[in-house]
Amino acid sequence: MNGSSAQTTFSLRPAALTDLAAIVALRVSSLVEMGILETDTINQPLMDRLGEEFRSLLSSVQFVSSLAVDGDNIIGCAFGLLSNRLPYPISSVQGEVAGVYVVPNMRMRGVASQLVRSIVIELQAREVREIILRPRRAEALLYTRAGFRTAHLMKFSQ
Ligand SMILES: CC(C)(COP(=O)(O)OP(=O)(O)OC[C@H]1O[C@@H](n2cnc3c(N)ncnc32)[C@H](O)[C@@H]1OP(=O)(O)O)[C@@H](O)C(=O)NCCC(=O)NCCS
Questions:
Q1: Is residue 51 within 6 Å of ligand 1 at its C-beta?
Q2: Most buried residue, 15, 22, 55, 138, by most Cβ within 10 Å?
Q3: Does pLDDT of 154 surpass 70?
């Protein structure tokens, strides 16, 4: 699959174990940008833990991934997590789109849109009952354009 923008061409592919360091770097950048992680708290133990968690996910059948690649550079990522819900007539499996991130200099060219689409296709292929995501308010447009609609989700926060 190729990007449609005239300014850039990229391709999408699933992540492999050899991408581990690049995926961790993208995740750290994303967490910093979202204000979840302070740059001065980034240290080797944290990087190691994130690496181990991604290593485990990459070998899990309940995980799907899509990387946007421009030449040798990984410019974006998106992931899908499958989880079992209570028994339901159609399917008891839920898919969640998560970890959508595009490097700053490659934004607004449709990279995230294509990443999200590819994860949705992968999750649909697993016959999930529903596909959810938890957008930050500013990114809601990206996801409504990708076919997501607001649904009820309450979060416990005490
Ligand atoms: C959000 C993010 C993934 C968007 O990546 P991108 O490749 O620039 O997105 P796209 O080019 O595919 O944009 C798709 C649509 O969403 C809109 N959009 C993208 N980023 C947006 C933002 N921050 N605020 C509002 N709208 C946005 C675009 O205008 C575009 O609309 P269009 O179809 O009318 O052109 C990227 O800005 C990012 O990585 N941000 C930091 C991490 C983050 O916040 N992740 C999301 C967690 S929910």
A1: no
A2: 15
A3: yes
